[in-house]
Amino acid sequence: MDYGTPAVVSVPELFGSELLTWVVVGLLLYWAGIIALRKLDLLPEFVGAQGPILTFHTKRGRDFLDWLSGPKRFWRAWANIGIGIAVVVMATMFVFLLLAAIAALTTPQPTGGIQQPRNVLVIPGVNDFLPLSATPGIVVGLLVGLVVHEGGHGLLCRVEGIDINSMGIAMLAIIPFGAFVEPDQESSKDASRGGQTRMFAAGVTNNFAVTIIAFALLFGPIAGAIAVAPGAAVGGVAPGSPAEDAGIEPNDRITAIDGEPVEDNDDLMAQLESSGDEVSVELDGERTATVDRSLLVTAAIDGGPVDLSTGDRIVAVDGTDVGTEQGFIDAVGDDHTATLTVHPAGDSEQTDTEVPIGAAVEVVHDEALDVATGQAGNVIIITAIGDERVHDYAALESQLADADPGDELSVVSYADGDRDEAEVTLGEHPQQPGSAFLGIQGAPGTSGLELNDLGVQLYPAEEYLAVLGGGGESSYGAVTDTFLGKIGLALLLPLIGVLGILPFNFAGFTGGVQNFYEVQGSLAALGDGTIFVLANLLFWTGWINVQLGFFNCIPAFPLDGGHILRTSTEAIVSRLPIEANRGMVRIVTTSVGLTMLISFLAMLFAQGWLAS
Question: pTM here?
Fold first, then answer.
């Protein structure tokens, strides 16, 4: 089930396609300028041009690499470890891209935001999930990643006796696009196959090492110096909501309700349950706003069982005026259906509609509820489990949490307005052995609607800090107790909102979310700004380096993985009881490379194309 576009937004969608257009125009003008300078022979000798990309060459640093390459046995052992890591990652990337392409071709779905081609680019403002405020951290992380990657190649060149013609960096406008080490071709051919493989693996080895170092520093002293500031963190405000009318904005903290201090997000919700239709809200401990609460639909299932849309207001239930979520539940009571008086968004006339009040779920084929009702694939509303009334999906989950596989439950549901009561024997959850499974996929909220009487969406500040090794509790439990578990979750943070795991993406302590945190402990003497800058640099350095490592391990030319595949294939073929030649190696490497390219393109474009 898919919700329509939520009315609650975290950050305005600045620029959108306009920004992308200006970026393209700027690049074209930049390219034209490079062509003109090259034709006029005004580019310095150390600057090369390949299309819109400038390469800056230097021979400096070779003496340093010669000195650093002194302990050759150590660096060979280091690179050998990298070869093992690279081979495992190469195989993983091959399988991942292949399975992703197969899924895209066999189960086409409308292309989601994360699958848009522009979101492959790690460019803030162009990529939907990377705000412009993250630019400094991303640029620094990218520079560090490129330097250590190519530095690793250069170092192992000297360890293996391969000469270096030049080194440098490639720039796309002002963006560091890549770095390079230019080995001497003849010298490279004379190196052993093992030496070449170690040289190609050294870059990704260094990227993964930098990832571990950066995240170790972030999860340790830096995140440990950051605490969640008191109050409820406002991540988003619904357009036309009571909060917006009162002047509440994203990145505000609600520090008190009617004069009572608010400790955190949960405390805000608890206080609102016992507050009236009009509340006094203190923001950031500095200013106060009066909010006239009203029940707003902030999200709704597309084509769902209830004909309401985002932006609609529920003003009465069975003739009783309601302005809060608790007032709504109280007005419904034990009735399974209710007549809602609705003020549609953008319409001055109120309408009445009778709807069942419960948990909206989609019935899974051949599972427990389908066996009892025959409603496979349909969206129905469950209003009761046994004698217990169910007002929303959270209540349904609570009722099922205490059940066991094999239990029999009476389930009351509505489909297309028709009531049904069935005895259901619970099955076993396919992904959680030992847990009961009703055979449903649920939508949060009431009857497929998310209701909010204030109009704010709360930012999970404590959750993000816990993932990054700071104080507080995480809903991921044991995962965040391990270093690798933290890294895995941290890598998801810039996309975690669009994946539906948490309500907002995390792009570092930037863009205003710093207001939700404060610096504490011995490092507080450095100042909030310094600690947040360090945290952002470490986060993006770790994030970018692991992405560079994985990307370069893709077994396709001209990436390092393609070269490692070639040398590894040569080593295997040379040991076979057949007359080996370059053609055999070329067949393997070309086949794998084309498979990767086709899989990558299919993952990006096939779902949207086939679904359309």
Answer: 0.78
